[in-house]
Amino acid sequence: MSKTTVTTTETILLQPLSPPAPIASISRRSSDPDLLAPITEHSVHDAESALPPETAVSTAQRWNDPPRNKYRVLSCFFAFLVYGMNDGAPGAMVPLFGEYYRLSHSIVSLIFLSPMVGCVLASFTSNRLHAVAGRRGVAATATGAYILAYLGLTQHPPFPVVVCLLVLTGFGSGLMNGSWNSWVGGLVQGSTLLGFLHGFWGAGATLAPIVISRIATKVEDWWIFYCKWHLRISITGLACLACVGVTSSFWDDTGSGFHRQHASPSPNAQEGTIKILKNRVTLTLSAFMVLYAGSEVTIGGWLLTFMMSVRNGSPTASSLATSGYWVGLTAGRFGLGWITGYVGEKVMVTVYLLSAIGLEIGFWLGKEFAVSAVMAALIGVSTGMIMPSGIRVMTKLLPPEKHLVSVGFATAFAVSGSSVFPFAVGALAEAYGVQVLQPVALALFGSQLALWLFISRGKLKV
Questions:
Q1: Other CB atoms within 10 Å distance of the CB of residue 115
Q2: Pick from 291, 309, 376, 318: which is nearest to 92 by CA?
């Protein structure tokens, strides 16, 4: 009888073990202490505890899921197109401003420096603005700053007023950078999407010099770029369309939604901002983006003047060479985004920077106009994905609640780099000539490579 009982007991114990899946889903509230002991530390949550709270927000959204994200992504792309035109315009405006206002290179270079003031201001107000008005408020404020600045520039005011108006564009750029980069970078396949986002920026930066050069060959009125350069199209009108697009697409993203997603014990947004800015990931990648943006905009901003003064190119040919640089940058962002995400940002950025250094040396040593134009375009291709990759790495290393402030801070300081270094080149060009562009660009690429190799070691702590 005892033997029969043992056989029956073994049969009952073996039946639950036959399908492995149910074992993995056994509730942690099981009453058998011997069964719980070996898996208490490593088991997954049971079904009840795995249910998210009602206020939880998924961090794995796709560009098309939920469906409204499709409209949001497209509106961000268009806003970055306008943003790119805004950044591509000053370099082409340098000769026009110098002639119209009769100013030297060092004074005209203030148009590169003044947006930094607005952008740094945006980096410290972005978190609070999100808390109060959400991304809807950020969209309206950022594009609204563009519109106000462009309306002022249509009146071709005195040059000091032009410099002050460009502070507004820097403020708008800083807000858009932090908000749209952090949102797009947090989506599934964020590396590819960031490549597209910054590709539209590159498309805008390509379009602006072409439009301005056409204006310069017909009339001397540089302000037509902001007023009406074809039919009724102008950058002011495009900024208005961007305002409507991004504001309406993020209409339901209000301050209350931001509080739910970024709930923290911090008593105020400013304290949270300062706390986040103290971590090494934010500071190190911010320094890297300062150097990158400095090299990108320094080359794009002074290339037209360099090709005319040093390579003896005509205004039209030099303008095409400048557009070639921006076309290369845009092509790199659209074409290399998937490859960068597949291989990995750490490896590919190293490859991109080594290529940029080699091409920059060829640009410097090649004295022919055609060689310089080709090298400039290839430099654009090789550096196109560096900025999106840096942002993507930041979103991978930091938790979601830190994305907005950290990415906003990093990209804001990137804009400061895009202001300081072109200004420095302008000051040096006044004393030593525009040929200083090449050693400065080479030094910036070398500094980026050294800093990226440090980042790639994987020892940064949040």
A1: 27
A2: 318
The answer to whether 126 and 405 have CB atoms below 8 angstroms apart is: yes
Average pLDDT over the chain, rounded to an integer: 77
Measured CA to CA, the distance from residue 436 to residue 452 in angstroms comes to 25
Within 8 A by CB and 6+ apart from 390, the residues are 285, 288, 289, 292, 345, 349, 410
Which of 262, 281, 247, 286 shows the shortest CA–CA distance to 128?
A: 262
Cα 264 to Cα 275: distance, rounded to the nearest angstrom: 12
Contact status, residue 187 vs residue 68, Cβ threshold 8 Å: no
pTM equals: 0.70
Closest by CA position to 301, among listed 80, 77, 82, 97: 97
Question: Is the CB of residue 60 less than 8 Å from the CB of residue 186?
Answer: no
Please tell me the predicted confidence (pLDDT) of residue 422. 80
Amino acid at 441: A
Domain ranges of the chain: 68-254+269-456
Query: What CATH number is given for 68-254+269-456 in this structure?
Result: 1.20.1250.20
Please indicate whether residue 10 or residue 96 has the higher confidence score (pLDDT). 96
- Angle of the 345-365 helix axis to the 369-383 helix axis, nearest 10: 170
* CA separation, residue 79 to residues 76, 88, 102, 158, 247 (Å): 5, 14, 33, 28, 10
Mean pLDDT across 206-232: 77
* Model confidence pLDDT, tens digit, residues 128-180: 887 888 888 889 999 999 999 999 998 889 999 999 999 999 899 888 887 88
- How far is Cα 443 from Cα 449, in angstroms, rounded to an integer? 10
pLDDT in tens, 263-312: 444 444 455 556 666 677 778 888 888 888 888 888 888 888 888 888 88
pLDDT value at 460 more than 80: no
Alpha carbons 64 and 257: distance in angstroms, whole number: 20
Q: What mean pLDDT comes out for the span 112-119?
A: 83
Would the pLDDT of 403 be above 50? Answer: yes
Distances (CA, A) of 4 to 70, 221, 354, 358, 361: 67, 104, 77, 83, 88
